[in-house]
Amino acid sequence: MENNREITASVKKRSPWSKFLIYMKRYWQLYAMLLLPIIYLLVFKYQPMKYILIAFKEYKLNTKLWDMPWANTAGKLDVFKYFKKAMNTDFYNALRNNVTLNLLDLFFGFPAPVIFALILNELPFKRFKKTVQTIAYMPHFLSWVIIYGLSVQLFAAGSGLVNQVVSLMGREPIPFLNEPNHWIATYIFMGIWQSFGWGSIIYLAAIAGINPELYEAASVDGAGRFSKMWHVTLPGIKSTIVVLLIMNLGGIVGGAFDRIYAMQNPLVLDVAETIATFVYKNGVKQLKFSLSTAVGLFQSVVGLFFLLSANALSRRLGERGIW
Fold first, then answer.
1. Whose CA, among 15, 166, 196, 289, lies 20 to 30 Å from 29?
2. Other CB atoms closer than 10 Å to residue 116's CB: what's the count?
3. 86-106: b or e for each residue (b if 16 or more CB lie within 10 Å)?
4. How high is the pLDDT of residue 184?
5. Which of 28-32, 90-94, 190-194, 256-260 has the highest average model confidence (pLDDT)?
6. DSSP letter, residue 117
7. What is residue 173's predicted lDDT score, i.e. its pLDDT?
8. Phi, psi (5° rounding) for residue 30?
9. Going along the chain, which residue ranges are E strands?
10. Alpha-carbon distance 167 to 310, whole Å?
11. Which residue from 202, 229, 235 is spatially nearest to 215, judged by alpha carbons?
């Protein structure tokens, strides 16, 4: 007992630096494994962040970042010049379309992989289950150019397969790709079809981690399949659903460029022009890099606000959140 007390007293007398050295000597292998990912983050994620200064400067191709002059109007310093210029264009229309399409994607697309994972979990035949999973995953590996080609073959007003069937039924062709409201529905549908199978993987992994004894206890209590799904499976994956929902809310003003650029056409630009295509057309194509950087910075700040708000709300409601 006295020896143990002496060892404890000697440990307490050590300085924080000596404790740190002892800790690092014991676990240095773990930190060595972290070294490469940290270097990657610093070089490819944090180091390029200095270029957000372009949003506040007059961009010149042959000039170093630090030597570029600050944005000015008629010789007067105006660091928010390109933010104001963006607001005076069609930016608001692009922002409205961006939020609208992402909210519809979230409302209709977010539950799809959850429902699909729940259905797959209830399938008793393993071979059939694996076949369905494989077929559902396949669209994820197709580019949006190919997916748009498929949508034209299916939904084109004159030659599309769906409209040919509609015409045989004696009805007028449906303008899936040419009329704004129908285009939005087609855009959301194709997005769900492309991603729901792949998105279900993480939910299936979460379901696999649920303790089987909970299902056995539910069976003893007389619960049927639907009751087990509602009272055991869904609560078991609730934390996973909340985390993914928070991450999706963080991208509410974001969006993939390839999807919207491939799917849009001149007839639906009023509802199909988003921030991604706005930056490409008004910034990159016209070499207005200060303007495109300003819009991108605005997009990132608003996305961060939504992410923090959603995380704070989830913690207030008793969930763990992202951090």
1. 15
2. 19
3. beeeebeebbebbbebbeebe
4. 94
5. 190-194
6. H
7. 87
8. -65, -40
9. 72-73, 76-77
10. 46
11. 229
Q: Which amino acid is at 161?
A: L
Tens digits of residue pLDDT in 233-264: 998 898 888 888 888 887 888 778 889 999 99
DSSP 3-state of 87:
helix
Q: Report the distance separating Cα 105 and Cα 176, nearest Å.
A: 17
- Residue 15, both tokens: 């300085």
Between 110 and 124, residue with greater pLDDT:
110
What sign results for the dihedral spanned by CA atoms 132, 133, 134, 137? positive
pLDDT at 196: 92
Structure tokens that stand for 22 in this block: 């002892």
- Contact (Cβ atoms closer than 8 angstroms) between residue 93 and residue 270: yes
Share of the chain above pLDDT 70, in %: 93
Alpha carbon 76 to its chain centroid, in Å, reads 40
Best CA proximity match to 55, nearest among 322, 240, 297: 297
Helix (H) or strand (E) holding 30: helix 16-41
Handedness of CA 20, 25, 26, 32 (dihedral sign): positive
Residue labelled with tokens 């944090």: 46
Using a 10 angstrom Cβ sphere, with 0-12 exposed, 13-18 middle and 19 or more buried, the burial of residue 297 is: middle
Judge whether residue 39 has pLDDT over 80. Answer: yes
Q: What is the pTM of this model?
A: 0.82
Domains of the chain: 77-316 (1.10.3720.10)
